[in-house]
Amino acid sequence: MTITVTNQKPAVLDxxxxxxxIGDYDPMPAIQQTLIDPxxxxxxxxxxxxxxxxxxxxxxxxxxxxxxxCLEDTLNVASEQTVKELxxxxxxxxxxGTPLPVAELFxxxxxxxxxxxxxxxxxxxxxxxxxxxxxxxxxAGTSNESAFFASIAYTFHPDTLGFWFQSSAAFDDFKIWxxxxxxxxxxxxxxxxxxxxxxxxxxxxxxxxxxxxxxxDDSDANDEHSFARVLxxxxxxxxxxxxxxxxxxxxxxxxxxxxxxxxxxxFCPRSLVLVNVEAHARATAAKIAGEWNLINQSLAxxxxxxxxxxxxxxxxxxxxxxxxxxxxxxxxxGQPGSRSAQVAFRKQPPSxxxxxxxxxxxxxxxxxxNKSQNIFRTTKATFLKANRRNPDDFNKPARITSVQYMPDLxxxxxxxxxxxxxxxxxxxxxxxxxxxxxxxxxxFNSFSHFLSQxxxxxxxxxxxxxxxxxxxxxxxxxxxxxxxxxWQYINTSRxxxxxxxxxxxxxxxxxxxxxxxxxxxxxxxxxxxxxxxSMVDLAKRYADSMKHIDPSIRQKLLGMVV
Length: 562
Prior knowledge:
With 562 residues, the protein is of the alpha/beta class. It is built from 20 helices and 14 strands. 36% of the residues are buried.
């Protein structure tokens, strides 16, 4: 199609928009203001701009539908060609011969602005040659944000909405501003939005990126004052204020901006990627490439779970899978390369010695801590000190006792309805024997769908009978089964996070479909005096259903696998 444009002022599109978070969700006014109006601004204010086809038909009123037809799930070749021709004649910086789709028009505009040829089989962009130098230039103030944006867009083409921050400190400034703004509208915000905003302010942007899932699809999370609408609205408002702040404070570099990788995500984002420019400037090219490839891998994943009660991080699942793969790669020679996938369950219940070995192995892997109830004393001979009984005999060595601390052991025993009194007693007696063999004190909770109060049981210098009597005096809860309360209980305390937490259970529970943070040092052990084949079946079912939360969970089933 041949398009003729007359009396139109060549434009530069600005991605900043402010879709209200109040009332029904309607992105069309923002699309009109951001994409359509600049294309129709007249050069001569007294005469309207004119856009016609080869037959002289007026195309002005059909431009919104024409552009939207390029943003559908399938590529419309005819619309793509027409819109590119239109943009080529109406924008200052646009190459209508670009191989990139119209959805990436902001990337094409930024590339043309910085004289960057369109990516093609003969024009390759890399983190080393393009992203890293652009990040350094933006950080130094020798280049504008469009070069940094174009370098990422041309190198990785992520289908998401991004916002860049000069540094982690600049992101912290935004969080302070966000808290102030949300306090003024606190009465209007739903409790779920308030919680998610509070969780957002706890995020850190010390790494290269932080990425969030905010919608399942275009129709999700569009309610008034939903978290997705409020967060994007606030990010856009904050970015829009930055140029004015820069103008009022000379020599103050721009601190944040928008990265409109695709048009569809710009107006109804399903994911957000927050980018730390300083971290990019100081990172290696391999690390940058790995980070953005991970983001693209996450965006391409068919399974995307968005929680209404907790922040859903875009890259959590592939990062967990990568950690599991790394653990497998670090196995000792002769062992399987990916233990999580190849573990075999025991055919018989574990003995006390089996569990003792597994717990000792985990404690040794966790390393020493500064202080704990798990005291480890070692004695060695030395000639650097006089013998206490024979100080004048230099041929007799002295003995030096050093004190070190291993991580504390915290036990969570399942006391739900499926656990009998016999199962409970057997589990407690097993733990008492292990504690006495380790010579340590224990932290203890019982749990069902409730969690009992935490107590510390002193086992040192006490008989098994005495310790059991102390256990009997501790009230235990009963009811259903709920593991996530224990995950949250551990994750909310740095002290508990550094303990070896051991959940003794029958595994008769299924995790939620949403992403949850599983504690790093939480392990599982089977209840005693139960049918072993049923226990193994439940443990397999639990491990299989935990793949989206912790792919390496099988390695944490102590006494269950060999």
